[in-house]
Amino acid sequence: MRIFARSSWQVSLALAFALAAGCSPADAPVESQSFDVVYGTDDRVEVPDASADEQGAAEAVAAVLDYSEFAGCAGGECTIDLLSYESWFSPYGLCSDEPFRDQYTAGFCTAFLVDDDLVATAGHCVTNYSCGSTAFVFGFQAPDATTGVVPGPGDSATLDVPESDVYTCDSVVKRVYTATGADYAVVRLDRAVTGRTPLCFRRTGKVANGASVRVIGSPYGLPLKVADNAVVKSSGRNAFSTNADSYGGNSGSPVLDADMTVQGILVRGNTDYTYDYAGHCYRSNECTDGGGCGGSYEDATHSRFLSSWVPTGTCYTP
User: Residues 106-138: pLDDT tens digits?
Assistant: First the structure.
């Protein structure tokens, strides 16, 4: 997965660059940093199609948005301005067999609840400066409003969500960001989250190689997806690698074991998309489950780094 963060000016800049005269397939818009990708079979599914345990865990996962993506809040609802998934690849587009190409996107990262008023995410997703314009939306799953006829490049739509599911960044409790090492942040929300249970996370040690894991998050700003059937490939001092299918936008996603305990925070990986010269379109980069992309996989910061900043308390147990 490539590291992916967007705001309104980034969207405008990306689209302007993509539409510039003389833009060739080799120059087509792709993310500027390295992030996630598909390993073997694409295992991403909508939350309602995941297991009951995974659906329960997804209740604690939020999409991270910029304030500029909201049209406003009134009458107990907030309206989010959505951008078609296709728009990110204008003027070349996504290949016709690319999963979820008929959906719309919002946000730039993922976060998950770790205490009543605390969420964890990747350190590169939020700073003290950006805190004041960052929102966290729980329940960002694929309703009918995000599917249907394949949208054309530049198409947009809106989505109304309960205002009670929208929280804002009050302060950054702790943030660490290194390009190849630890990358995490703990954010205090403007109020306690109601109706959702924080996720349990490993507070000491590290996950074993070969352990089964899955990722829950918002790949490329799409509604939440669950990517199962992954394993831990190797583990280092600050992070471990996994062959979980993930993309830009999955930054900050929880990487959970079979018991739905968070083992890591997804932070970086391989290139998301490749250009299909035969079809003149973009498709997900495909690596192998066993060999990755030249031996490299997706990286997740060990969850134990959160321990000093998150008090122990009730957490989700399937």
Answer: 999 999 999 999 999 999 999 999 999 999 999
pLDDT score of 245: 82
Q: What are phi and psi of 182, to 5 degrees?
A: -65, 140
Distance CA 165, CA 269 (A): 30
Which domains can be identified in the chain, with CATH numbers? 8-21+34-306 (2.40.10.120)
- φ and ψ at 57, to 5 degrees? -65, -35
* 37 neighbors 245 (Cβ within 8 angstroms): yes
In tens, the pLDDT along 238-268 reads 999 998 888 889 999 999 999 999 999 999 8
pLDDT given at position 16? 32
Q: How far is CA 302 from CA 5, 264, 265, 294, in A?
A: 21, 5, 7, 23
- Angle among Cα 231, 234, 236 to the nearest 5 degrees reads 135
Give the per-residue pLDDT at 4.
39
**Cα dihedral across residues 46, 51, 55, 61: positive or negative:** negative
Cβ atoms within 10 Å, residue 214: 25
CA dihedral 9, 190, 136, 49 (to 10 degrees): -170
Residue ranges in the chain modelled with pLDDT below 70: 1-40, 143-155, 270-272, 288-296
Closest CA relative to residue 91, chosen from 149, 14, 177, 189: 14
CA dist 115 and 117 (Å) reads 5
Specify the pairing of strand 286-287 against strand 38-39. parallel
Amino acid identity, residue 111? Answer: A
SS3 98: coil
Number of separate helices (H) and strands (E) present in the chain: 2, 21
